[in-house]
Structure prediction request, 262 residues.
Amino acid sequence: MGDEDIPQLRPAQAHLRSAEGHGLVGPTRPARHQEGRRRLYDLIHRDGLWLLIATCDVPDVDVTEPDAFLGVDLGIANIATTSDGERHSGVHLNAVRRRNRRLRRRLQAKRTTSAKRLLKKRRRKEARFARDVDHVISKSIVTEAARTGRGIALEDLQGIRDRVRLRKPQRITLHSWAFHQLGAFIAYKARRSGVVVTDVDPAYTSQGCSACGHTDRRNRPDQETFSCTSCGFAEHADVNAARNIASRGEAGRAAVSQPNAA
Prediction:
């Protein structure tokens, strides 16, 4: 990271926020980067800590037409799996969520002021942890796509909570997991890197063979395994789904790019 990428503390417009109220501190003229980018600061008092949050307007770069697409399959056991075979495990995050869920039940039963205050603090801590995980995953995905000159194909997440059928413990995890946050992080990082992002219909991507195209529920004997009943192709189920998503991204892009017939 170069010096130009590190925000410097110069006189600027800032908001001071605490439990007692909020207001402006310092000069009202926004500071600017060397490149003329406008910045604002927020000084926030939260959970006993003072946090200085710097907001900077960064212009998007020109989008590069991709040669191919990196498919991304989202899930619970593996938060994100790419068509290259990279799997971002959700084991640690899910363990943290289960532990916090048990703690919330105990605190809610107490119904005291201190318990409510601790509940609020734990919710914020869990949200920060999940946000950090999403930032790390999205950065990895966008960096790889930009490095290889590819776009990113994501499954359309509209209605995912209604269409996915899971056991009760997994349903609880599904409803607490911020799929849309991860998608949003990938999208904005991609814009800053000039990487195309496209949403595709995820229907049957988990049952279809990425090698021959044969679709059958029996292709998925268990959660992790994909074994095609037609051609015999075998792969981790999430990787196979991500490859199908990548293929749909390429097909959709080709259809959009194709000139209209005269």
Remarks:
- The first strand starts at residue 14 and ends at 18.
